[in-house]
Amino acid sequence: MRITGTGHASMRIDTAAGSILCDPWVNPAYFASWFPFPDNSLLDWETLGDVDYLYVSHLHRDHFDAEHLKRFISKKATVLLPEYPTSQLEDELRDLGFTSFLKTKSDEVHELDGGLKVMIQALISPTDGPIGDSSLWVEYDGIRVLNQNDARPTDLTRFNELGHVHAHMLQFSGAIWYPMVYELPEAAKTAFGKQKRDRQFDRTWRYIDDLKADHVFPIAGPPCFLDDTLWKFNDIFGDEGNIFPDQSVFMAEYAKVGGTNGVVLLPGSVSELSASSIETSHPTDVDEFFANKQAHLEEMRERKAPVIAAEKASWRHPEIDVLGALKKRIEPLLEESIYMAQGVGGPVRFDLTDSFGPDGEVVESIVVDFPGKQVRPYADEKVRYRFKTGRALIEHLIHIDEGDWVNSLFLSCRFSAARIGQYNEYVYAFFKCLSEERLQYAEGWYDEHEKAVEAEDTVLGDWTVQRRCPHLKADLSRFGMVDGNVLTCQLHGWKFDLPSGRCLTSVGHKIRAEKTEN
Ligand code: FES
Questions:
Q1: What is the DSSP string of 248-273?
Q2: Taking every annotated instance into account, which residue ranges of this chain make up the domain Rieske (predicted)?
Q3: CA of residue 126 to ligand 1 center, whole Å
Q4: What is d(CA 168, CA 165) in angstroms, rounded to the nearest whole number?
């Protein structure tokens, strides 16, 4: 089996029974904020795109690059489609010209021609990617690989059941706006960022340890930020709170915990994988490449500046009545929302500036009033969350009829945020569900899960707690760690105060816990 690195989370898997291209991403994503690093735009995409199968793990724009798919990927390719609750991924791929689809069943092995086997595990909670994230397992001639991608399954049991895995590709770096965009003192940001960075690595070690594959490939990030206002997010300034460590940092950290089987793929690197060996060749020396990271980034910044400028030129639509358009789009959804509206529990304010981000003068302030089920001008009130961003970005979201603001505005990091109290997952869940189909799905999901009674218990130290994490059901007998009266679920790092059951990380999500009698 041959694995060719094609950048970020993308790879091409070649076997004698056919080839699979995964998540090809080349064009900038999220308001031209994220670029693949190392740069993959100079690869021979005509050849790479001439494949038998295409796998797009989910709709996040650093995995689903419409322009690139349209231009370079063979429309003869059969799409290996994850089993998602909405048809959006399939619809968007059909719009791009793909016609052949294998609709997989989650967690079921599918046998393709020539003895190639695939299985896609689909994660479908409202917090999994854009309502759906997935991993691809492939087997050919006794060689198995798991492209876990940036999916966060509670465990890897299903893959382990299918036999020893030879290569495990997974995310290790950050892919979120926290804590950088929060209006916090720098020292606090660094402390939160450091915690997050450590947690990301801990989670990665846990997955690696779960699967015990022969070889581990760090993939799916980090992106690079080439616009001047976002340049500070690149991990080149020795900031221990930076959440975007790169593959070379992964290798160093992995070595500290005893990892010796890491394989870094640059775009164009090729690994020949057999049951007993791996041979990898690179287009350039990997260590040297990362040692010169800053110079590579600076060169990219210069080369991509016209791309960013052209994108920016398309965002402003001053003729749009932002308040009126948001009222029209959001108010009917507020009316239908029960769980998410209740979960947000207060007004959310958008301060809109005259720039392309949080800097500049505020020209309009709008409130999405969840309890009042209204979108209206800000009325000098206390709000639960406040976002500050460019009016032009909201104009553009309205102009392109965007129904997922996480997969556009929030991931762009072109905003700042402040909040009262804890992180509130419902705020972000709601703003990724600005369509009838998604809203109904998410509300139904919360309905089912809120009502689900978690009957099983597990004992952790002096405490008997419900076995499944109130966040996304991780098995706490494996992911739970108790320190004094606080339980941390290591899958996403959420914390719970055991005597009260209160979730310390987010609103709601109470845990059932009792001190074990000795
Ligand atoms: S499942 Fe997310 S913190 Fe436990």
A1: HHHHHHHHHTT---B----TT-EEEE
A2: 465-518
A3: 14
A4: 7
Burial of 290 (0-12, 13-18, 19+ CB in 10 A): middle
12: part of which helix (H) or strand (E)?
Answer: strand 11-15
Using 50, 70 and 90 to split pLDDT, how confident is the model at 455? low
> Which of 207, 170, 201 is closest to 479 using CA atoms?
207
Residue 252: other Cβ atoms inside 10 A: 12
Closest atom of ligand 1 to 505 CA is 3
Q: In this structure, what token pair is assigned to residue 274? A: 């057999």
Q: How many CB atoms lie within 10 A of CB 10?
A: 29
Q: Please indicate whether residue 471, judged by its CB atom, sits closer than 6 Å to ligand 1.
A: yes
- Distances in Å between the alpha carbon of 218 and those of 147, 167, 173, 380? 10, 11, 9, 47
Residue pLDDT, tens place only, 82-104:
999 889 999 999 999 999 999 99
CA 400, CA 180: separation in Å to the nearest integer?
27
Alpha carbons 208 and 503: distance in angstroms, whole number: 28
Give every CB contact of residue 434 below 8 A, 6+ residues apart in sequence.
329, 330, 333, 402, 403, 404, 405
Q: Record the pTM.
A: 0.89
Give the CA angle between residues 252, 9, 274 to the nearest 5°. 75
How far lies 186's CA from each of 193, 242, 291, 360, in Å?
Answer: 10, 12, 27, 20
The rounded distance, in Å, linking the Cα atoms of 269 and 4 is 6
Q: Measured in whole angstroms, how far is the alpha carbon of residue 6 from the centre of its chain?
A: 19
> CA nearest 352: which of 379, 331, 378?
378
What is the total residue count of the chain? 518
Cα–Cα distance between 159 and 144 in angstroms, integer? 10
For 63-81, the pLDDT digits (tens) are 999 999 999 999 999 999 9
Query: Is 468 near ligand 1, meaning CB less than 6 Å away?
Result: no
The mean per-residue pLDDT over the stretch 414-424 comes to 92
Instruction: Please answer whether residues 362 and 467 qualify as being in contact, where contact means their C-beta atoms are separated by less than 8 angstroms.
Output: no
The atom of ligand 1 lying closest to the CA of 476 is 4
Verify whether ligand 1 is closer than 6 Å to residue 491 (CB atom).
yes
What is the arithmetic mean of pLDDT over 508-518? 83
pLDDT of residue 437: 87
For residue 509, name the pLDDT band (cuts at 50, 70, 90).
confident
CA Rg value for the chain: 23
